[in-house]
């Protein structure tokens, strides 16, 4: 059975439209679960005071971080932070690995941007 409409031009148009949307950013994905955002805000508030202003600033901070790095990268960096505190060869691997350092640097840059924008 043949299709009455040539498929080639339709596929080309679809690919062109997809290409026009540009690169996907972390903000477009909005892939941070609510629980992760809440956990960040609770920790941030403990460090910055438990005030209404801190809620706003900490909520802003995680929103900025989420707009800069995808959730998967955030989880990697948080894992590196946690595991690098372990006093063993496992902890050493997390402290010295190039991949771990890269993920941690990404998070620190995002946090610095959040600090500028929100605090």
Write the SSE topology.
Blueprint: H1 7-20, H2 26-29, H3 34-48, H4 52-68, H5 71-83, H6 89-96, H7 98-118
Helix pairs in contact: 3-4, 4-7, 5-7
Overview features:
mainly alpha, 119 residues
Low-confidence stretches: 5-22
Q: Domain count, please report it.
A: 1
Structural class: mainly alpha
Classify the beta-strand content into a percent band. Answer: under 5%
- Arithmetic mean of pLDDT: 82
Instruction: Please tally the helical runs, counting DSSP H or I stretches of 4 or more residues.
Output: 7
What is the element string, with H for helices and E for strands? HHHHHHH
Specify Rg, calculated over alpha carbons: 21 Å
Distance between the termini: 64 Å
Shape: globular
**Overall helicity:** over 70%
Regarding quaternary structure, what we see is single chain
The count of DSSP E runs of length 2 or more, i.e. the number of strands, is 0
The major pleated sheet works out as: none
General description of the model:
With 119 residues, the protein is mostly helical. It has one domain (25-118). 77% of the residues lie in helices and 0% in strands. The chain is built from seven helices and no strands. Helix 3 (34-48) crosses helix 4, helix 4 packs across helix 7 and helix 5 (71-83) packs across helix 7 (98-118). The longest helix has 21 residues, at 98-118. 15% of the residues are buried. The model is unreliable at 5-22 (pLDDT under 50).
């Amino acid at each position: 059975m043949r299709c009455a409409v040539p498929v080639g031009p339709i596929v080309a148009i679809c690919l062109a439209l997809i290409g026009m949307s540009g690169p996907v950013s972390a903000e477009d994905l909005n892939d941070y679960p609510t629980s992760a955002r809440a956990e960040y805000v609770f920790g941030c508030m403990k460090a910055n005071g438990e005030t209404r202003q801190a809620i706003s600033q900490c909520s802003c901070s995680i929103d900025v971080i989420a707009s800069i790095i995808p959730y998967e990268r955030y989880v990697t960096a948080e894992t590196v932070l946690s595991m690098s505190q372990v006093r063993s060869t496992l902890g050493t691997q997390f402290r010295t690995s190039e991949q771990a350092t890269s993920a941690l640097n990404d998070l620190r840059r995002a946090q610095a941007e959040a600090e500028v924008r929100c605090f």
